[in-house]
Design a protein that fits this description.
binds norvaline, binds phosphoric acid mono(formamide)ester, five-stranded parallel beta sheet, 308 residues, alpha/beta
């Protein structure tokens, strides 16, 4: 039984094995209807709780469908509808849920909520996004890059915009999968030093380049995300937009990257803000492959957690 809390706290060879298994499971479903179970159903008899304290489309649907394809059952819980949202402690919630379910996935605000859940649950806990990180997304993104371009090791990834939770997990992945990362954004929205230093300590090159055109030069992958995350106060929106506008990913900016550079966005996107539709719907965009691969990558993550 193992928690999947973050990419940097998960063994490198286990991460690689999960990506390989995700690809194999994806291939094995070729021609299947979405609701058909996999040929093997390793989650048969398993009950999975999916807890959301923030909105979600992809995480919610991909986990739910993934569990069912593997023969398990799910319950989707909204934090607000649980006693958790009305003062019951996280520790007690974790102990109680562990009596009913075999696996817990939680999307929450504070990282401490996730860690407390993991500490007190006696079943595995998966991080479905916190204010600080979003590891399931980046597992899908690494899988997607490798499907299109081969090994991500040694490649140059450029993160544009806000140094947010998704950026943090990209930095974790840089260290674990061995790719270089350039952060292109304003100084007020830099990723936390801990994430940058963590990746550097694993021997990869992490640079901060303020000029977006210079930053994307030679990029194999350019990544954008929303300028205002779910945990950010709406009162910061105008200031953020003003600071981030120069970092919009449009065709002019992509022209400075390698000609075959991929474009990624975890979605949901605000079209014509952080990225233009011309790029999002352009030939090098793999945004819907990323969304699909959430399903396959998370199925491998769940199997790893449960050891099945
Ligand atoms: N990318 C992602 O996690 O999307 P949702 O917020 O829709 O789950
Ligand atoms: N950075 C975004 C990611 C959404 C999937 C947020 O936290 O809102």
């Amino acid at each position: 039984m193992t928690d999947f809390l973050d990419i940097h706290t998960t063994d490198q060879s286990d991460l690689q094995a999960m990506i390989a298994q995700a690809r194999a499971m994806k291939d094995a479903r070729a021609g299947f209807h979405k609701g058909m179970p996999d040929a093997e159903t390793p989650l048969a008899g398993h009950m999975v709780a999916l807890i959301f304290e923030k909105p979600s489309t992809r995480t919610r649907v991909s986990f739910d469908v993934g569990v069912r394809q593997m023969g398990g059952q799910t319950m989707v819980l909204s934090g607000n509808d649980m006693q958790l949202g009305h003062g019951e402690t996280i520790a007690d919630t974790a102990r109680v849920l562990s009596r009913y379910v075999d696996l817990i996935m939680i999307r929450t605000f504070e990282e401490t909520t996730l860690l407390e859940m993991a500490e007190h649950a006696t079943v595995p806990v998966i991080n479905g996004l916190t204010n600080r990180t979003h590891p399931c997304q980046i597992m899908a993104d690494v899988m997607t890059f490798e499907e299109h371009r081969g090994p991500i090791k040694g490649k140059k990834v450029v993160w544009t915009g806000d140094g947010n939770n998704v950026c943090a997990s990209f930095l974790h992945a840089a260290g674990q999968f061995g790719f270089d990362l350039v952060f292109a954004g304003p100084p007020t929205l830099d990723p936390e030093r801990e994430f940058i230093e963590g990746a550097r300590s694993k021997g990869v090159n992490v640079e901060i380049i303020r000029n977006p055109e210079e930053a994307v030069k030679g990029a194999d992958l350019v990544v954008a995300d929303t300028w205002v995350s779910m945990h950010d106060s709406q009162t910061t929106k105008e200031r953020r937009h003003n600071q981030l506008r120069p970092y919009q990913v449009n065709e002019a900016l992509m022209a400075h990257a390698k000609p075959d550079a991929l474009f990624m966005h975890c979605l949901p996107a605000h079209r014509e803000e952080e990225a233009t539709s011309a790029v999002m719907d352009g030939p090098n965009s793999v945004i819907f492959d990323e969304a699909e691969n959430r399903l396959h990558a998370q199925k491998a993550i769940m199997r790893w957690c449960l050891g099945v």
